[in-house]
């Protein structure tokens, strides 16, 4: 079942990246706009960008056109589908629910960082990866741990906004 659910999730990724690429074009400053467009192109090409590259665009998501409360409704719907939240709600509720869900994951991330990944059983490690978007059913424990360490490195650098 996890593979089926992962397929549904992956079906939403293209819409998220397309919406993000369109929104990036509207950024007023050329450097963040170019960095984000390059990042979208890389991910669409199947690459997994390094943490430093992701952190380089984080300021574009606070107080700009890419802030959650300013995203286009189609973009918010696609993000909701990625997180298995119902996309069939009015925009206000979608944004509120998405913000709540993302903040919950961020709180869990901070708790995991504090606890340490070594404390997790293999099942808990796989569940943590899956909640964050990685289908871990075909990965080993070490691969899951490495991916989750990278995720935590990014998540714990971000602010709630």
TrEMBL record:
GO terms for biological process: intracellular monoatomic cation homeostasis. Pfam families: LETM1_RBD. Coiled coil: none annotated. It is a single-pass membrane protein. Residues 1-161 form the Letm1 RBD domain. Keywords: Membrane, Mitochondrion, Mitochondrion inner membrane, Transmembrane, Transmembrane helix. It is found in: Mitochondrion inner membrane. GO terms for cellular component: mitochondrial inner membrane. The keyword Membrane applies. The keyword Transmembrane helix applies. GO terms for molecular function: ribosome binding. Its main location: mitochondrion. PANTHER family: LETM1 DOMAIN-CONTAINING PROTEIN 1, LEUCINE ZIPPER-EF-HAND CONTAINING TRANSMEMBRANE PROTEIN. This is LTMD1 protein. It comes from Drymodes brunneopygia.
